[in-house]
Amino acid sequence: GAVVSQHPSWVICKSGTSVKIECRSLDFQATTMFWYRQFPKQSLMLMATSNEGSKATYEQGVEKDKFLINHASLTLSTLTVTSAHPEDSSFYICSASMDRGVLYEQYFGPGTRLTVT
Amino acid sequence: SQQGEEDPQALSIQEGENATMNCSYKTSINNLQWYRQNSGRGLVHLILIRSNEREKHSGRLRVTLDTSKKSSSLLITASRAADTASYFCAEARNNRLAFGKGNQVVVIP
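^ inputs. structure came back:
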């Protein structure tokens, strides 16, 4: 149980285009979903937190107009990288939690490798 | 945001040996969690230790927490080649996780 999927697993796009990444909780309803970014050999950096039906909360320094997050249902959240540039190339990981209040466990997706050429 | 810091960052050991990683954090936490990440993959939750706990075991894993020193350690006993991965600690605060820099562990068969 507690499986999170991401689609696509990897994507290559041209500079200036937009890319959408989906995150789904397959066998549970997630009260909260999180989006992280990870550069090679580095840690995960939290980009934003999203709750179903409400606007995402972005971390300081993350451009909300560039990284659009939609949390349409309790099982689906999407991250759209708009007008992508090579510096947006990274590994994007989502996670989902069933917790409210104190966070005890997040279930992570397998990640999406984005390469912008 | 403040994040935990692991030490050492890279560790290479022989199969069967124990591996120990440390993590420090800077503020009060609800709990501290350890995750494993295989290369190019998502994270797998290993173990969670609450702020009022001092030690916890799960199979070959042992985690300790010292809130007075704001530090935690992860011990993997009798390591296996399959334990080769990056290990991250994460502080749970304000309904989010703040990840440390991670430890790269290589277990040589």
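The interface with chain B takes residues 4, 6, 32, 34, 36, 41-46, 49, 59-60, 91, 93, 95, 99, 101-111, 113 of chain A (CB under 8 Å). The mean pLDDT of chain A is 92.
thumbs up if we can close this ticket
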